[in-house]
Amino acid sequence: MAHEVVLIPGDGTGPELTEATRRVLEATGAEFEWDVREAGADVMDKHGGNPLPDDVLDAVRRTGVALKGPITTPVGGGFRSVNVALRKSLDLYGQVRPCKTYPGVRTRFEDVDLVVVRENTEDLYAGIEYEQGTPEAEELISWIESRGGSLRHRDAGISIKPISVTGTRRIVEFAFDYARRMSRRKVTAVHKANIMKFTDGLYLRVAREVAAENPDIQFDDRIVDNMSMQLVQRPEEYDVLVHPNLYGDIVSDLCAGMIGGLGVAPGANFGEGIAIFEPTHGSAPKYAGQNKVNPIAMMLSGMLMLRHLEEHAAADRMERAIAEVIREGESVTYDMKPSRDDPTAVGTSEVADAIIGKLEVLV
């Protein structure tokens, strides 16, 4: 039976990446019924200025799975992030970003194979902020000081960091379940509980409680600054890393840098009965329509989708085909060549052609 999947091409270079990935996914032999839905800057005028129309959310709720191209987030103005809106609207509380080295990608590291799990809905990214100089900020500062708190300077903007027992428990349980499904050996909780006793302290306490309920998977914890150092010294000691929202955002980019950059870093966001798969990089609108950008991260995100759909044989073949094209280094985009002006670099669609060619000979 074909899998019904919502396909969100995105904007900027998103449609090119999405089309290349769709072609490769279909070449694996898995069957799909694509429900194509539009979102992003390019469709706002059609939907009264809304970059995330309700029909997109309804379609994802109905099918439970989506593959999404990158979508532009304006800097300093315009609409807020469509990615954030999707996570909030669909309660996509768990982000997964595998970081794995593939021979042929330029990097200072070898044999990295980590999974970053990030809580998506709480922490400082919950967006509870008060602007400096507003009555709300002044009132909050006065309230803090009336209860024995101290701010050296009153001219402060304020952000509030909520971390709950419920949110922590479900993301750590998710990390253990993911580790078990993917035959991973260990979960490491990343925190700053030595300083933030009542937020990160809560997170660490609950993580340890969940670990005690999952004795078949190893568990340890690391302070986030120490974790960053250890990752660049001995990444082989770590496997699944589970973080509150802010630390997960930062550490996931660190790990992506260790494997060669965001061009080879896939991603997924999970909620209850819903999963959206997408590359972790941006939409690169200046390259739109040029058949130039690297589709590997989006293709690897599609591979993660195959695993989610329990198309394991197809996923394995797709990853092997991608890895072989990367290893050979011939049919890759400019950013994966030894020199970025290498005249032998190919375009987005040609990368897809090469991977499809590999799939045809892989059994």
Secondary structure topology:
Elements: E1 3-8, H1 14-27, E2 32-36, H2 54-63, E3 65-68, H3 82-90, E4 94-100, E5 113-119, E6 129-130, H4 135-146, E7 158-159, H5 165-181, E8 186-191, H6 200-212, E9 218-223, H7 224-233, E10 240-243, H8 245-258, E11 266-271, E12 274-279, H9 296-308, H10 312-328, H11 348-361
Parallel strand pairs: 1-2, 1-3, 3-12, 5-10, 8-9, 8-10
Antiparallel strand pairs: 4-5, 4-11, 6-7, 11-12
Helix pairs in contact: 1-9, 1-11, 5-6, 7-8, 9-10, 10-11
- Please give the order of strands in the largest beta sheet: 2-1-3-12-11-4-5-10-8-9
Q: Give the second-level CATH assignment, the architecture of the largest domain.
A: 3-Layer(aba) Sandwich
| Overall pLDDT metric | 93
CATH class placement of the largest domain: Alpha Beta
Helix content: 25-40%
CATH superfamily of the largest domain: Isopropylmalate Dehydrogenase
Enumerate the spans where pLDDT stays under 50 for 5 or more consecutive residues.
none
Continuous helix count: 11
Integer count of domains: 3
Describe this structure as you would to a colleague:
This protein has 3 domains: 1-93 and 266-363, Isopropylmalate Dehydrogenase; 108-122 and 163-258, 3-Layer(aba) Sandwich (Rossmann fold), CATH 3.40.50.2300; 125-162, no CATH class. It contains 11 helices and 12 strands. The chain has helices at residues 14-27, 54-63, 82-90, 135-146, 165-181, 200-212, 224-233, 245-258, 296-308, 312-328, 348-361, and strands spanning 3-8, 32-36, 65-68, 94-100, 113-119, 129-130, 158-159, 186-191, 218-223, 240-243, 266-271, 274-279. Helix 6 links the parallel strand 8 (186-191) and strand 9 (218-223). Helix 1 packs parallel to helix 11. The longest helix is centred in the middle third of the chain and has 17 residues, at 165-181. It starts with a strand and ends with a helix. The mean pLDDT is 93.
